[in-house]
């Protein structure tokens, strides 16, 4: 949750997370540093105080996404520029596929502040935009309501039997939720899960994705290289780096690709500043 302002929403978010079997809550630069212990947060957590007690505070979104290999920006607004957009069911199915192929992966759902949601800079740090289909004339959801819906879809997809997963996997289903702190079982509802064709989720399978902080370090290195060859004027940057960031985030770089491109940056800078 980016810059939350209302303790009640934080408490409700903790309850939603625990309801659906998840355990990690991260607050990015909350308005009140003591928001997790606020009376209203504790009241609306309603038995999920352990989630509040274990929650982390992060100074910025980059810090919150450290170690994350797949981040979804949950937003109701359409964007002219940004990562590809999926609905929440596609998001859950892609997450399931990603976890099937990468056991050590970490996935994040990123929510914005209550009043304005996520800004473009926040979204540029995510791999995909995620939206919840709703009434077009009144699509804005309360942040904790949106989180509950997202968590339900993720929980449902995690428990679906192999026969209805879009990957076509035949391995035995894992017991419980791979993103959960506990274990749960469910027979699943294939009529609800089968919403999109399999090919919609094959762009992010069987690849060794770089964690967010590695990609961010590369983008900073790339910016330095562009400045070095006078392609980017730091005094008049226009929208070049945001567009570059969207491009690199959209392709979801592997660690090998990050290492390769950082090698390119290093050699550019060596050439530019060679005595």
From TrEMBL:
Residues 2-150 form the tRNA/rRNA methyltransferase SpoU type domain. One of its GO terms (biological process) is tRNA nucleoside ribose methylation. Residues 172-187 have a biased composition (Polar residues). GO terms for molecular function: RNA binding; RNA methyltransferase activity. It holds the Pfam family SpoU_methylase. InterPro entries: Alpha/beta_knot_MTases, RNA_MeTrfase_TrmJ/LasT, SpoU_MeTrfase, tRNA_m1G_MTases_N. Coiled coil: none annotated. Keywords: Methyltransferase, S-adenosyl-L-methionine, Transferase. GO terms for cellular component: cytosol. It comes from the Bacteria. The keyword Protease does not apply. Residues 167-188 are annotated as: Disordered. Belongs to the class IV-like SAM-binding methyltransferase superfamily. RNA methyltransferase TrmH family. This is RNA methyltransferase.
């Amino acid at each position: 949750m980016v810059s939350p302002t209302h303790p009640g929403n934080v408490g409700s978010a903790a309850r939603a997370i625990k309801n659906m079997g998840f355990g990690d809550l991260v607050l990015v630069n909350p308005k009140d540093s003591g928001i997790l212990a606020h009376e209203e947060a504790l009241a609306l957590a309603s038995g999920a105080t352990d989630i509040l007690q274990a929650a982390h505070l992060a100074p910025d979104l980059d810090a919150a996404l450290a170690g994350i290999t797949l981040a979804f920006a949950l937003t109701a607004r359409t964007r002219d520029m940004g990562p590809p957009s999926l609905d929440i069911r596609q998001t859950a199915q892609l997450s399931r596929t990603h976890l099937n192929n990468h056991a050590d992966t970490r996935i994040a759902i990123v929510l914005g502040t209550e009043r304005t949601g996520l800004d473009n800079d926040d979204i540029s740090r995510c791999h995909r935009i995620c939206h919840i289909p709703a009434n077009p004339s009144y699509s804005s959801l309360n942040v904790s309501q949106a989180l509950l819906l997202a968590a339900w879809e993720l929980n449902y997809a995690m428990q679906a039997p192999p026969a209805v997963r879009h990957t076509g996997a035949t391995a035995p289903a894992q017991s419980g939720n791979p993103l959960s702190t506990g274990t749960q079982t469910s027979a699943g509802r294939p009529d609800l899960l089968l919403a999109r064709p399999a090919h919609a989720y094959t762009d992010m399978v069987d690849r060794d994705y770089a964690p967010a902080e590695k990609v961010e370090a590369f983008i900073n290195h790339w910016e330095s290289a562009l400045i070095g060859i006078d392609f980017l004027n730091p005094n008049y940057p226009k929208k070049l780096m945001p567009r570059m960031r969207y491009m690199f985030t959209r392709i979801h770089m592997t660690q090998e690709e990050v290492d390769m491109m950082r090698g390119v940056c290093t050699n550019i800078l060596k050439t530019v500043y060679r005595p």
